[in-house]
Amino acid sequence: MSILLNNISKNFGKFAALYDVSLEIPEGELVALLGPSGCGKTTLLRIIAGLETPDFGRVLLSGEDKTEQHVSRRGIGFVFQHYALFRHMTVFDNIAFGLRVKPRKERPTEAFISKKVHALLELVQLDWLADRFPDQLSGGQRQRIALARALAVEPSVLLLDEPFGALDASVRKDLRQWLRNLHQELHVTSIFVTHDQEEAMEVASQVVVLNQGRIEQQGAPAEIYDHPANAFVSKFIGQTNIFDLSETESNWLQRAGILAEKPQGIFAHVRPHHIEIVKAEEASGSPVTLKDWQHLGATIRVELFNPQHNGSGATLFAEMPNERFKQLNLNKGDRVAVHIKQAHWFN
Ligand SMILES: Nc1ncnc2c1ncn2[C@@H]1O[C@H](COP(=O)(O)OP(=O)(O)OP(=O)(O)O)[C@@H](O)[C@H]1O
C-alpha cells in the first residue's frame, strides 16, 4: 500500500506538533522517520494509523482518502517500543489473537490459524518458543513475537514506533539486520520511528528527517549523508566538523592552506573522512597536533588539536582506515598537516 500525506498540520493547544508535512511513500518501501526528541515522529505515525486526526491535510492510502477512516479499518499493523504482549497468553496464543477476534464470518478455522501461527514463528525464527509465556522470553525475542503478531492479520502497512528502543546495543544491531531481511522477504510498506541516525541509515531504504514538526529532507540514506539539504541535516546525520568562516577561522583555514575549495558560504561542514592528515615538519608552520585516537572497528577516529580558535572548538575529528593510520606512524603530540578534501557549505 502506498502512503501519501498532503499538507498535514497538527496542533496540541497552541503548540504546533506538525506543520504542513507532505510526504509520499511508494508501496514496499522501508522508511525511517528520524529526528530529535519531540520533533513530531510519533504524532505523524499516529496520524497515518488513524489514532490521531490531523487539524489540516489529508491521508491517502493507495490513492484513497482515509483521513476520516477509523484505525481498525485501515489494514495497519503496529509494533511499539514497550509492546505489551498478553502476559497470560502463550506466544502461540498471542500471535493467534488478531485472527481469533475477527468477526465470525471473516474468522479463519483453528486449523488455518495454527498453520499460520507456525509459519509466522518460522518467519521470525522462533518456532521453538510457541508454548512459552512472554515473561520467559528475552527482550529481543519479545519484539520479534510482537512483529509476528502484527503480521498475523496481513496488514498492508506496518508501523513501528522505536521498535528496538528498549533493547541493549548488540541485540539492537542483530534485530536491525533481521528486520531488513524480513522486509526484503515480505515487501510490506513499513515505517519505523527512530532518533538513532545510525539505525535509520542501516535499516531504511528511505529516510525522512524531521525537525520541529517539519520535514527537513527525504531521500535514500547515501543521498542524505552525501548531500544534506541544510545545516540541521548535516549535523544530525553523522559526525561533522563545523568551521565558521565569518570568524577568525577563515584566516586560519587559508593560512594553514587546508581549504581546497573557495568559500561558498559562511559555514563549512566537513565530514571526518574528508580530512586527510600527514606528518608535518616542525618548520611547516602547521599549528595542528595529534591529540588522541579511537578505534571504530575498521576505521580510526583521530582527534586533532588546533590551538587557534575555530567554530567547532579547538578539536577536529578525522577518520581513516586502520591501515592508513598505521602507515602514517603517528604518535600523540606529533604535528600534522591537514588537508580538507570536501566541504558542504551553508549560510
Ligand atoms: N496528546 C498530546 N498533548 C499535548 N502535546 C502533545 C501530545 N502528544 C504529543 N505532544 C507534543 O507534540 C510534540 C511531538 O511529540 P511526538 O511524540 O510526536 O514527538 P517524537 O518526535 O515522537 O518524540 P520522542 O522521540 O521523544 O518520542 C512534543 O513536543 C510533545 O510534547
UniProtKB/TrEMBL annotation:
Residues 3-237 form the ABC transporter domain. InterPro entries: AAA+_ATPase, ABC_SmlMolc_Importer, ABC_transporter-like_ATP-bd, ABC_transporter-like_CS, Mo/tungstate-bd_C_term_dom, P-loop_NTPase, Sulph_transpt1, TOBE-like. Keywords: ATP-binding, Cell membrane, Membrane, Nucleotide-binding, Sulfate transport, Translocase, Transport. The keyword Nucleotide-binding applies. GO terms for molecular function: ATP binding. PROSITE patterns: ABC_TRANSPORTER_1 (PS00211), ABC_TRANSPORTER_2 (PS50893). NCBIfam families: 3a0106s01. This is Sulfate ABC transporter ATP-binding protein.
